[in-house]
Design a protein that fits this description.
The chain has 182 residues and is α+β, with helices and mostly antiparallel strands. 23% of the residues are buried. The N terminus is likely disordered. The chain folds into 2 domains: 64 residues, no CATH class; 96 residues, no CATH class. 32% of the residues lie in helices and 21% in strands. A hairpin with an 8-residue loop joins strand 8 and strand 9. The strands form 2 sheets. Strands 1, 2, 3, 4, 5, 8 and 9 form a 7-stranded antiparallel sheet that branches.
Length: 182
């Protein structure tokens, strides 16, 4: 960690000096080293968190890729549970295939409860459903699950994760403007 901080400091100090020079601030101005260290540590923590988030998304994409077709999903306990879902003017979700054996109070990012398929039959996303038994609201790399959101008849949390099809609304947005059922 100290090597990473030293490396970041070596990169940030010259950049800060150049920025100060460009702003017309004299190089002899006092520098708040504590603030620079805190900023570097914060940047390092953000970089680590972003790297971890990207790694988990990559793992989810890799593990769910085996369900590239509804035939593969069916062979592994997933059953179609909805027609193609779309909200005109907002976007769609596609067809939901649920593995009911996975729907429980536990969030396991590498075992999604739902596979979502576009109208063309291609895998577009996964969805997590976590039954609410009073536990803290789950998060996926700090992103909070929605409260409810599916037709599950008990209190629950849900979260879409668009790892197989780009969603301009965001990787965890429920609706994808690029999905249309018509």
């Amino acid at each position: 960690m100290r090597d990473r901080t030293s490396h970041l400091r070596a990169l940030l100090v010259p950049a800060l000096a150049a920025t100060l020079a460009a702003c017309g601030t004299e190089a002899s101005s006092p520098v708040d080293h504590a603030a620079m260290h805190a900023s570097a540590a914060s940047n390092s923590a953000n970089l680590a968190a972003n790297t971890a988030a990207a790694g988990l998304l990559k793992s989810v994409k890799s593990i769910s890729a085996r369900y590239h077709s509804t035939t593969q999903a069916s062979k592994n306990g997933y059953v179609v549970s909805s027609p193609c879902v779309e909200l005109p003017g907002v976007g769609g979700m596609g067809f939901h295939w649920v593995n009911n054996a996975l729907v429980d109070p536990v969030f396991d990012p590498l075992n999604p409860e739902v596979m979502l398929y576009g109208p063309n039959g291609k895998l577009v996303a996964v969805e997590y459903i976590v039954i609410d038994v009073g536990q803290p609201r789950p998060t996926f790399n700090g992103y909070q699950f929605d409260i409810g959101g599916t037709p599950v008849p008990v209190p629950h949390y849900s979260l879409h994760t668009w790892v197989h099809f780009d969603n301009p609304a965001g990787v965890h947005a429920p609706w994808n403007p690029n999905i249309s059922c018509s």
